[in-house]
Structure formats: C-alpha cells, structure tokens
DNA sequence: AAATGATCATTA
DNA sequence: TAATGATCATTT
C-alpha cells in the first residue's frame, strides 16, 4: 500500500517512479493480478496507476487528491504520442441543475488541475508489455477554460430546457455529452420538452480527442 | 479510419 | 442507482 502523497512534490516523485515501467512490472509490485484484457475490465489501467500514486480508491464525485487539488487521469496514446480515446471527466448532473454554474460545477473543479499519465494503449501491444509514460501536471489556459466553459453552458442550457435527448456527441467544441452507464437499460430522471419528468440514460462529460491531443503536444514539444 | 453510442467492473 | 475507473465495437 502506498500512503497518499502529502505534497504535490511527493506525488510527482511517485509518478516519476513508475514512468518507463511496464504494466506487468507495476501489477507485480502492487500485487494486483494482470487483467486478461481490457474488454471486460476497462478501468484496470487507471486503477493500477491509482494504487501506485497512493490515490484513495472510491467513487466520490471529487478530485483524486482533494487535499492537493489534483485530479488523476491516465490517457492512452500510441508510439507517436497520438491520443487514442476521448477522456471521461465526470458524470453529468441532469435533474436539479438550478443554481449550477461553471465555477461551482464538479467538472470545473476536476479540471482545475490534472495529473495526466500517458500509457501506451495500442491494441497491437500486449497489455502486460505496455509502458507507462511521464506524467505531468496541467491547468487549463484562459483560452482552454473559455472553450470548456462555453461548451458546458451550451450543453447545460439544453438540459435545463428539456432538450437532453437532442444532444449528440457532435455538439461542443472540446466537450462532449455521451451516455455513461453499465448498459442501455439504466435510466435516470430528466426534464422533457414540456417540463415533465422523463427517463433517460445517464450521461457523462468527455473531452474530445483534439483537445487532449493539444495538451499532450504542448507537453512533449517543449 | 475516425467517431459515436454502448458497455464492463467495482464500490457504496 | 449513481458514482468511480475507462475502452469497446458498430456505424459513419
């Protein structure tokens, strides 16, 4: 068990320790069994990295390192540093959203400071042989914040107006709204177009690839 | 080939 | 059910 880091510097040291190592090595060190594949265990890599960085496991809607104000995200990239997947940020509040602003939203809080940990994610590389890259801290620039905030406001307005079912993943410049649930039969309450209560699939906020790619590029082209 | 919509495991 | 950790796999 790795104790939670007491400072940002400690966290970054833990992060340096795992850089360059394979998932097999890290699983062995953690005493965690290698996942056979990610198909039936999609969060396995993220949970392995959490263990090594001393993140407190849990399903609370807050940052991984709340005392440091830092959220942890692993991000799959290929050998050229290309981002392979969109990034889930958090689930979307869709029922009682009155009084909710970008500034007091969970997504704003989570994105205030992110420790990005790139992990080799090409399917052609066997899971145990994939290498963990060098993690780095990131905070949104003014421009990036503007993009996120305006997408968020547009999406949340549609939700408040009962137009959630008309939102597609194509909406938003950098932020997407997509289903986020165990399967299609999971339902939660939302407002319909006439203000009535309807049942919809739960949604989550995702960062589009182009946005996370720019973050990765910014880091590795310095 | 890229992207959208769907899905898997686990905890509380 | 709702939150976390995400990637899968069919459609475009």
UniProtKB/TrEMBL annotation:
Matches recorded under CDD domains: MutH-like (cd00583)
SMART domains: MutH
Protein location: Cytoplasm
Residues in DNA mismatch repair MutH/Type II restriction enzyme Sau3AI domain copies: 53-151
Main location: cytoplasm
Signal peptide: none
Keyword entries, A-Z: Cytoplasm, DNA damage, DNA repair, Endonuclease, Hydrolase, Nuclease
Family: Belongs to the MutH family.
Known function: Sequence-specific endonuclease that cleaves unmethylated GATC sequences. It is involved in DNA mismatch repair.
Protein name per UniProt: DNA mismatch repair protein MutH
Organism, as annotated: Psychromonas marina
């Amino acid at each position: 068990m790795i104790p939670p880091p007491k400072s940002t510097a400690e966290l970054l040291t833990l992060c340096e320790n795992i850089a360059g190592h394979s998932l097999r090595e890290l699983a062995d060190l953690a005493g965690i069994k290698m996942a056979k594949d990610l198909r039936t265990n999609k969060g396995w890599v993220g949970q392995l990295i959490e263990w090594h960085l001393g993140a407190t496991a849990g399903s609370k809607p807050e940052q991984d390192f709340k005392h440091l104000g830092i959220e942890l995200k692993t991000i799959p990239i290929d050998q050229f540093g290309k981002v392979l997947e969109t990034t889930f940020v958090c689930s979307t509040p869709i029922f009682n959203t009155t009084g909710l602003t970008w500034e007091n939203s969970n997504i704003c809080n989570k994105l205030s400071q992110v420790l990005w940990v790139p992990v080799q994610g090409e399917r052609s590389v066997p899971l145990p042989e994939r290498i963990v890259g060098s993690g780095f801290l990131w905070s949104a620039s003014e421009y990036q914040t503007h993009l996120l905030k305006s997408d968020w406001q547009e999406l949340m307005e549609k939700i408040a107006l009962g137009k959630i079912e008309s939102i597609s993943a194509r909406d938003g410049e950098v932020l997407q709204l997509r289903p986020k649930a165990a399967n299609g039969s999971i339902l939660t309450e939302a407002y319909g177009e006439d203000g009535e209560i309807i049942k919809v699939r739960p949604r989550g906020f995702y960062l589009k690839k182009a946005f996370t790619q720019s973050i990765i590029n910014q880091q590795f082209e310095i």
